[in-house]
Specification:
9 helices; 2 domains; Neutral Protease, domain 2; 52% helix; 13% strand; binds zinc ion; 5-stranded mixed beta sheet
């Protein structure tokens, strides 16, 4: 009997500690639901609050701009085991606790990652650099505090290519929007989601293919 009681107590404690380390919070706002989980016991409540606030500020805007049919329920998981910065799959964003502790100002990691949910390209018919370039273009346009993270679009360098992905591609896209044709990146994003994207779409939208656009950009890269 005593042994049974002891076992029950230990089992209860195990359940409690498991529940605490995977504390889950469900937050609903503006028709969207965010489930927040963390296995990082020392997570700063201020950082947690900011991650949540950034989601509710940015995600509805990105949904409205790019994909109103995007999922309404998203999960955030602050993970002590994740070694990268952050990653997204199936509506769940995993953040590295290590990165967020060292770079709490880099809050627009949220903006980049939730754009991947909005993109919803499935098995994309386009290249990976395009997916990442669009996500950073969107971070640059909709980010809540890129200056606070000293996150900027890097100046063009001779060795750059539009295939470099991320911020290098994002700067090129910003230039296209400003100097070639506004709405181009939105149309490219839609074609990727509809799986109608082919490289020829650039010429259909802008009159020039990607290499010709890049050549023009290199000649006059000011934003
Ligand atoms: Zn990404």
């Amino acid at each position: 009997m005593k042994r049974v009681t002891l076992f029950s107590v230990l089992f209860f404690l195990a359940v409690v500690s498991f529940t605490q380390s995977y504390a889950q919070e469900v937050i609903k706002k503006k028709g969207y639901t965010l489930t927040f989980e963390s296995n990082f016991a020392q997570l700063d409540p201020k950082l947690k609050k900011r991650l949540i606030e950034t989601f509710f500020e940015v995600y509805p805007k990105l949904a409205k701009e790019y994909n109103p049919n995007t999922i309404k329920e998203v999960k955030f998981f602050v993970d002590t085991n994740y070694k990268g910065v952050a990653a997204t799959s199936n509506g769940k964003v995993s953040f590295s606790s290590n990165w967020m502790v060292k770079h709490p100002e880099d809050i627009d990691v949220v903006t980049h990652e939730v754009m991947h949910i909005v993109q919803d390209y499935g098995r994309s018919v386009g290249p990976g650099w395009l997916t990442e370039g669009i996500a950073d273009y969107v971070r640059s346009k909709f980010g809540v505090d890129n200056p606070g993270a000293k996150w900027t679009l890097p100046d063009l360098k001779p060795e750059h290519s539009y295939k470099n992905s991320y911020r290098i591609t994002a700067r090129f896209f910003t230039w296209i929007e400003k100097h070639v044709k506004p709405g181009t990146i939105k149309a490219i994003d839609a074609s990727l989601r509809e799986h109608t994207y082919t490289p020829s779409i650039w010429a259909k939208l802008t009159g020039k293919d990607l290499d010709a656009l890049w050549a023009d950009y290199v000649k006059n890269p000011q934003l």
